[in-house]
Amino acid sequence: MPNLLPISALLPTLNRSVALARMLQSLAQQSVQPEEMIVVDASTDDSTQNLCQKEIPGLATIIKYYRATETGAATQRNQAMTYASQNVIWLLEDDILLETDCLARLWLALHSAPNIGGVNAMIVNQRYLPPGRISRLLFHFLHGRSENSYAGKCIGPALNLLPEDDPSLPEVVSVEWLNSGCTLYRREALPQPLFPINFTGYSLMEDVTLSLMVGKTWKLANARTAKIFHDSQPGDYKNDPSVLGKMELINRHYVMTCILGRRTPIDYFKLLVIEIFGITASMISVQGWVKLPALLFGKLAAISELILASYKNIHSEG
User: Which of 3, 1, 13 shows the shortest CA–CA distance to 33?
Assistant: First the structure.
């Protein structure tokens, strides 16, 4: 029987019972497990509920199942948080696979120093790559100075870069932001609610927002030897470049202005540069060209919404 740790795992899910079953099986093989897992399900059938109610060999964690009151990664996590009873919160996604002793290593990393508020696992199939010449020039411009490595940093108008899996690095590496795929937080470090209400649907960049908020008063770290595989699953949101394009710009603008407090003309110019760079990078493939009109439509819709919101804000203050 594995040892149970005082952890509440929060897991939002939507029509992914097969992927969730694989994740739970990988959790059942961990040397330690969380006391409880709060599953908030927005699925359109009962397969996820049936999975949560059946016995999984080796899994000692108590699974508490709830139907989602509102669909969306951030809103479902907010709902799950209201049911959590433990002092350490584990943000999980349903399409990850935990490698050997992942949770045990995360736990040790979180408690390696009293000022660490959150730690995340290394995603083995999504790694930081050293920037090429053009990207390095872009990063220098956004960051305002050169770095030997930009791994784990959040630079300029909220451009977040993955941590680095370099064997020469220590097991616990300081970073500036954390993802939400497999992350432990001290409950006392977390805001209430976890995520602002403006993060809806796919909730792109909600993890950056949360970790930057925690990082204002706590240290953040990557547990380099705690590893997961991200078995990324298809979703309706991934098929609509217009929706994704709009959400990316609006949410990045929110992080830039409201979380990082970057509102100067140069900050907006840097945001424009990021958007142009992203659109240009998407055009290296035929599929990118096919999706380009929808992507541009989404960006224009985002700009219109941001201008309208700014106009209303100015007049309400007046």
Answer: 3
